[in-house]
Amino acid sequence: MTAELLEQTVDRSKAEAFAERLLNIFNSGALSLMISIGHRTKLFDILAELPAATSQQIADIAGLNERYTREWLNAMVVGHIVNYNPTDKTYKLPVEYAAFVTRAASPDNMAVFAQYISELASVEDQIVECFYKGGGVPYSKFKRFHEVMAEDSGQTIVAVLEDSILPLVPGLSEKLQRGIDVLDVGCGSGRALNKLAWLFPNSRFTGYDFSIEAIATATTEAQQQNLTNVQFEVKDTTRLDEVEKYDLVFTFDAVHDQARPDWVLRNIYNALRADGVYLMQDIHASTEVSGNLDHPVAPLLYTVSCMHCMTVSLAEGGLGLGTMWGQEKALELLKEAGFSQIEIKQLSHDFMNDYYIIKK
Fold it and tell me: Domain 121-359 classified CATH 3.30.565.10?
């Protein structure tokens, strides 16, 4: 196509709007990195407690270097997140914004999610290589993913376990009070299981994950809380061979990035007792991309999929279903595993996840 013909066929307003959108994307991507830093350094938390203050005052309270603190604050100012008074050179975080970027705002602290962007960016070179050669990037290359995931699940899962998630299954809390056997597959750092073990001392809890680091963290936290009814073990659940051992099995956002989700689900089916319940929390999405056009965070989730969930599965020679495997695929694999009773529920605070109540 000649330049002259291209000029005739291009909708200039559409092209300019797209160029403007790209600039907004680049600015937002840059701000995501700054928001992550603000969360990790607790600058948002400190700003929320302060009246208008100078960069030096803020840095002193935070125990941070003033020059870096000032540059971060200026990024927040031009990003329209922090207010700035040029007369006295003071900065102030609006209370309305503090409600979404501080630890006190949990489970609404959205600054937690910004950490995923920098963590994913750390493996960009390896991901680009996979585009050319196939394969995947293993879990070991992600230095903070378990840490960030634990903080994320602490807001969306652990904080609402007792009041929102357990009531999804009628009578479940009462059974836990009396005492049952519980398994968490892909337990990560064990925050959910440790909380359940503390809430229900008569029940017996087991957590499996193939991450040595995550299991070490889970075990240490259980010991610190003097929990004697919970145990954690490093285990590849594609090789799980337990039969009718548990009354309740959990998976919290853990199935889709398994190397072989089909094998894991079949093993869960075998490990569950005949009258048991499997509660699977996983991403709310459609398997077909056209069903996700109106999903509020679809671009983020497909990026997380490409740069983590899909690639860690492929690194193990797995199916690589990815984050957005969707309800249709999930239902297909659950039925293939042998489950016949499946109900999908959602929670008002959690637009990102579905909760599958599953029985044999």
Answer: no
